[in-house]
TrEMBL record:
Protein name: SnoaL-like domain-containing protein
Superkingdom field: Bacteria
Domain SnoaL-like stretches: 19-89
Length: 127
């Protein structure tokens, strides 16, 4: 079942649900085609759907349990700024990773919302 985020705060929740299901195509559908992902933070930002596949492909292999809490949202037309607290756990409840993310979401061609700039550990430092 294809999920369409009707509100900005739903994007991360749906990505988490797709991660738990192991659905890489579902995850990709919630990212803008021209997206930027700042992960891992020590590497240069990655761009587009191919980057989404590369980053999330290995993350979903173990079908982690995803805990996502939206802590801030500011919407302006077809663009919104979000903040999340997130945590990934394995099937036994062991912590795999956690962070505080900052994201920009925008309207997608399907009318839903998708990640445009995704910084899962916050924005990268000024270089």
């Amino acid at each position: 079942m294809m999920r369409i985020a009707k509100h900005p705060h739903e994007v991360g929740l749906y990505v988490g649900a797709y991660m738990e299901e192991g659905d890489l195509d579902g995850i990709v559908s919630l990212f803008h085609p021209e997206c930027v992902i700042c992960f891992p933070p020590e590497e240069a930002p990655k761009h587009g759907h191919q980057a989404v596949r590369e980053i999330f492909g290995s993350l979903i292999a173990g079908r982690p349990k995803v805990h996502n809490t939206v802590t801030g949202v500011q919407e302006c037309g077809d663009i919104a700024l979000l903040q999340h607290d997130w945590r990934f756990e394995d099937t036994e409840g062991n912590l795999l990773g956690e962070g505080k993310s900052t994201e920009v979401v925008r309207r997608l061609p399907n009318g839903g919302w998708g990640f445009f700039i995704d910084c899962p550990l916050g924005p990268p430092p000024v270089s």
